[in-house]
Amino acid sequence: MNSRLPDFKPHDFVEEDEDLPAALPRSRRKGIYMLPNLFTLAALFGGFYAIVMAMDGHFGLATLGIYAAMLFDSLDGRVARMTHTQSAFGEQMDSLADMVSFGAAPALIAYEWSLKGLGRWGWIAAFVYCACAALRLARFNVNTAVVDKRWFQGLPSPPAAGLVVNFVWLINSFNGGVSGQPAGILSWHAVEWIMFVITLYAGLTMTTNTPFYSIKDISGRKTMPFVATVLIVIFIALINIDPPRVLFTIAVIYGLSGYVVYAWRKAKGLPTSVISVSTDEPDERGLHQ
Question: Most CB within 10 Å of its CB: which of 92, 148, 197, 269?
Fold first, then answer.
């Protein structure tokens, strides 16, 4: 099956400079800009704070650290575009910060919270998640110019981290934040294995070619229907009613949505790839059928 999606437009993949040949991408600035990198450093601090809190056994605060990292990570790119301060340095800095905040930090939180009770299986699951986050971020950097901007290739690292830490928050809401205690009808041993499955699922899904809809496509629109505004208000109200349950439900729905889209496209005979043709290493041609 042809891996090129028929409804993609050329500008969805590569922005071209009028003064350069059409086949060459626009060059990126190599300078260091303070404002967007301050947001990136703030996201990095959120991940570092989460690690420290997890090591001290304060898993609720560790979860808040990951959420703070998500907030600042969503802002640094927007600030760079608004102030026209995009740079190659900023892109690399953002990826390194993401590796700490959404790769190493969630893996350590999951391990310290429950996975270490499973022995070698626990640290294997944590390592798989961490390694998959690194692979996902490296592939993202390689394929930035050829992936349709409306979709992510595999589960993005922030939602993957959210899936892990939201489960921690949810269970803590049942047992008062005390690790090792039963959570409702679940024994702590059952919680450990559920965390094992969630950690592996989130990690491996980051490395798949499954298409996940990009929230940036919504936030980038200049206008928003009135109904959408009302739905956002309702959404915020629902979160305030019971944040752990609502946010975990949202994380699960988004974490499964890519496979639903993939199955729907496959059933309709539509292309399932979000990438046109990659000629960079690693060579991924033929893997996106």
Answer: 148
